Amino acid sequence: MSTPPHAEHRRPSLAEVLLLASVFVIAACGLVYELAAGALASYLLGDSVLQFSTVIGVYLFAMGLGSWLSRFVERQLVGVFLQVELLVGVVGGLMPAALFAVHSLLPPGEGTAFRVLLYGLVLLVGTLVGLEIPLVMRILKHHFSARYGLKDLVSQVLTFDYLGALLVALAFPLVLVPQLGLVRTGIAFGLLNVVVAVWALWLFRAELRLHQAHAAACLLSGLLLLAALLGAEHLTSWAEERFYGEHIVFKQSSPYQRIVVTDGRAGTRLFLNGNLQFHSKDEYRYHEALVQPAMAAHGAPKRVLVLGGGDGMAVREILKYASVEHVTLVELDPLMTTLFRDTPKLAALNDHSLSSPKLRIVNADAFGWLEQQKDSFDVIVIDFPDPSNFALGKLYTASFYELVDQHLAAAGYAVVQTTSPLIARRSFWTVVTTLEAVGLTTTPYHAHVPSFGEWGFVLASRRPFRRPTQFPPGLRFVSVPSLPALLDFPPDMARVPTDVNRLSNQVLVQTFEEEWGAVH
């Protein structure tokens, strides 16, 4: 039906405005459920591009299925739309909480059961979300046909739909998750779906059958989600304490990661996105092995750069050298450096190294920061999390190591933490191959850290590695006599042929996922 000439100039009614606003809210809620499911899959099953991709793929398929199913809704459009909104609000809003709870209750190794629930919920929520927009368009067309032709209708609805998706895509990592957390974010947006249902209940009260039943359903759904919102903090604490197995003393989501610190009889542990970063009972083995060979081989380093390592442990080891005049720590997440500088118990673990007058803390992306700098350093310590996704994988590429080479003094050494050469053998040697591809001489070595198992490191320089003849006093693990054992690789960790990890292929991320995925 064509739009009458005068209709375009008529001011929209309140009902039209509220319905178009509901499209905005619907789009925002739908994207939140999609992002929350992807984030939870990565958080609970491994920080992986695979998890996010499969969740999004299933969700989009389900939305298409829902859109197709909407064609079979022929009567009581408003009533069906209202029911769909309530179902989306309750199921989608409670999905993060349910997944957290079930994952905590399942015994270790029951990943299959959790995946079935995850993808089942994603399929259900996606199908319901796919029903929403076609129903709204048909309601608008049915009630306001004099104002909307097909062209105008599609344009208006999709404009509000995409605008809602854009704002949530920006707010989800920057505001919602850091301030509310995944569980409360899901519940809060579930309540917004209930609000849309209440709008529909009021706007079309004159034509709705079973008005009281719909009103009761809205009330019950709202009360259920409000009760869940009030109990969200307790649920999250209970689920995470079951997941980590120890008392949680700190937990917070930054725009970059979920940081959890636990404290038990055996000591303090740090987790980033569910992955153990250190245990206070044996972290000295890891950090001495990471830092000491490069520092001692140089002999008298003055300027040192640390990339990653926001916990300050690597800086602690560096400051054991009197020759050090200046240390620059580049850590993406300011929450990490603030936490380990200002929390007394955590600052004691790094000997208050983050408060040293020799230290400059820079909260920035290491890749971009190196591109903008011209300084050179005697030692560069690279202590990033493992390459479990493309955002981290870029920090293990030839392009990144070329930047490292440009900032390395002629007689300097760089050292890279490089996952386990036993469990992730091809991943380890991929890093070695990539460093060599940019013209650096490599010296791979490994150390046993009980919390991690056998762990690998790679020294890189423009000259052959010169074995140190002395280390600072007071070290608990690294020593001159024990160094040859660290450099020796038994047959099950010996070098294997690997490709260079480049920005254009990121082969390391896939290799890493395959090798560690076979263990879990």
Automatic annotation (TrEMBL):
Residues 227-462 form the PABS domain. It is a multi-pass membrane protein. S-methyl-5'-thioadenosine binds at Q257, E331, D365, A366. The active site is at D383 (proton acceptor). One of its GO terms (cellular component) is plasma membrane. Pathway: Amine and polyamine biosynthesis; spermidine biosynthesis; spermidine from putrescine: step 1/1. Keywords: Cell membrane, Membrane, Polyamine biosynthesis, Spermidine biosynthesis, Transferase, Transmembrane, Transmembrane helix. The keyword Iron-sulfur does not apply. Its EC number is 2.5.1.16. It catalyses: S-adenosyl 3-(methylsulfanyl)propylamine + putrescine = S-methyl-5'-thioadenosine + spermidine + H(+). It is an enzyme of class 2 (transferase). The chain crosses the membrane at residues 17-43, 49-69, 81-104, 116-136, 157-176, 182-203, 215-232. The keyword Transmembrane helix applies. It is found in: Cell membrane. One of its GO terms (biological process) is spermidine biosynthetic process. It comes from the Bacteria. Spermidine binds at H287, D311. One of its GO terms (molecular function) is spermidine synthase activity. Homodimer or homotetramer. Catalyzes the irreversible transfer of a propylamine group from the amino donor S-adenosylmethioninamine (decarboxy-AdoMet) to putrescine (1,4-diaminobutane) to yield spermidine. PANTHER family: THERMOSPERMINE SYNTHASE ACAULIS5. Belongs to the spermidine/spermine synthase family. NCBIfam families: MFS_SpdSyn, PRK03612.1. This is Polyamine aminopropyltransferase. The lineage of its organism: Bacteria, Pseudomonadati, Pseudomonadota, Betaproteobacteria, Burkholderiales. The gene is speE.
